[in-house]
Amino acid sequence: MTPDPAGLADRLGRWSAGRGPLYLLLAARLRRLIDEGELPPGAALPPDRMFAAALAVGRGTVVAAYEQLRDEGRIVRRRGSGTRVAGPARPEPRDTTGAPVFLHLLEPRDDTTILLACAAPAAPPPALLTAYQRALTRLAAVSGDIGYHPSGIGELRRAIADHYTRRGAPTGPEQILVTNGGQQALSLLARAFVEPGGPVLVEAPTYPGALETFREHAAVLRTLPVGLDGFEAAVRTPGRRPDLAYLTATHHNPTGAVLPPLARRRLAAAAAAAGVPLVDDEVLAQLVFPGAEVPPPLAVHDDGVISVGSLSKSVWGGLRIGWIRARRPVIDRLARLRAVHDLGGNLPAQFAAAELLPELGRLCRDSAAERLARHDHLRAELARRLPRWEVPAVTGGQTLWIRLPHGDGDSFAQAALRHGVAVLPGSGLDAAGGGAAFIRVHFLAAPEVLTEAVHRLATAWHTYAGGAPPEPAPRSLAI
């Protein structure tokens, strides 16, 4: 079917209402349509000249936008056959585990699929219920307060500041901005620091939500190995200073790596010397296994490091409380940006979080033994049923980064989903394209659920790889 340039132009909306070169703004909007499935694999895109006429721009703008998306692997361009969204055409919609990761992972399902893709505690802990009871008592006593606090309520800001001070980074409440989860924190930072077309340094692989956020702001992603190894040389390259650098120094998502103390000091010093804003994602930092200490934040080594935190992984995903720790001028700027879109967060949740913060370390220690046991159980089951899979142990966090012996994570994730297990393919976590051989799974489910999940994965793998049938299934579970 011949693509309709005017129709696609209408679907783009106000694509040019932003900062930066038009071709990057156009590429960003097309990228979003592709990633959200509105432009499915195999869909034809309009020819350069026809699309430029429909958009009232020069042909060079369309060509440059198409080239940007081609370099990212989102479209293919062939002389004689035109421009198409990458991937084989599909006659009808079907379940998928491709990018973007958020919509399909977070949508509720009414089947018995075991969800090992999106990691977070499956239920609120008793301590959260107690904290809410106290929060409601506090709320009943509020007067003379209309409830708009773009930076967060003072009590919670002080509690978060004390949390960092206890960990060796002296912090005042004026250095804290409370956000609606860690994802909003990353979005605010991207809005504040990243210009369209500006480079952002990320680890390969890394948290997929961060990649989607930076792409949404039309960043050009540049990758370094886990721990931003090679950072000093990368920022010394003339004309290549990044707008922002992002990493997870503790319990890296997805590999579970922990950056050693010397590397932390060198990285913080190099970022300060180069004037590059360095974001340390600490959402998983508290999730150590028994006997280990939570490493100090990178801000211990330089107060200019920006720390991002959240209670979604350590307490419960439904508690939408996150934060940013930075120098006051940065916090003031972020608060102004936040107020444009969101005049403040939920007050009962903030009162509850203020009750929880002083006990956060103890709460995570109390659950550490169970997390370790489930980590060990999942690895043991995978070793028994899928011995050729490479499944390195981790020292904390929530996920395992698994290398498949052959094939690719995207196609196997489809096979696994057909067998009732959702896993995250590695391609969506690696902006350099090096994650194709990997999948990410979490180990937070109950042992009997993990056992059933591994049975289903083994069945899917033997079908996918053309091997012999797996061992008989364990007792079926109602998931």
Q: What descriptors fit this protein?
A:
Arc Repressor Mutant, subunit A, disordered C terminus, three-stranded antiparallel β-sheet, single chain, alpha/beta, 3 domains, 16 helices, Aspartate Aminotransferase, domain 1, about 475 residues
Low-confidence runs of at least 5 consecutive residues: 91-103, 471-479
Provide mean pLDDT, rounded. Answer: 89
Distance N terminus to C terminus? Answer: 42 Å
**What is the CATH C-level name of the largest domain?**
Alpha Beta
Helix segment tally = 16
CATH superfamily heading of the largest domain: Type I PLP-dependent aspartate aminotransferase-like (Major domain)
What is the CATH topology descriptor of the largest domain?
A: Aspartate Aminotransferase, domain 2
Shape: globular
Q: Give the helix/strand class.
A: alpha/beta
Count of distinct strands: 15
Largest sheet: 7 strands, mixed
What is the domain tally? 3
Strand order in the sheet with the most strands? 5-11-10-9-8-6-7
Helix content: 40-55%
What Rg do the Cα atoms give? 23 Å
CATH architecture of the largest domain: 3-Layer(aba) Sandwich
Describe this structure in words.
This protein is of the alpha/beta class and 479 residues long. The chain folds into three domains: 5-85, Arc Repressor Mutant, subunit A; 101-123 and 367-465, Aspartate Aminotransferase, domain 1; 126-361, 3-Layer(aba) Sandwich (Aspartate Aminotransferase, domain 2). It contains 16 helices and 15 strands. The chain has a seven-stranded mixed β-sheet, sandwiched between helices. Strands 1-3-2 form a three-stranded antiparallel β-sheet. A three-stranded antiparallel β-sheet has the order 12-15-14, with helices on one face. The longest helix is centred in the last third of the chain and has 26 residues, at 360-385. The model is unreliable at 91-103 and 471-479 (pLDDT under 50). Keywords: Aminotransferase, DNA-binding, Pyridoxal phosphate, Transcription, Transcription regulation, Transferase. In the C-terminal section; belongs to the class-I pyridoxal-phosphate-dependent aminotransferase family. It comes from Streptomyces qinzhouensis. Residues 20-88 form the HTH gntR-type domain.
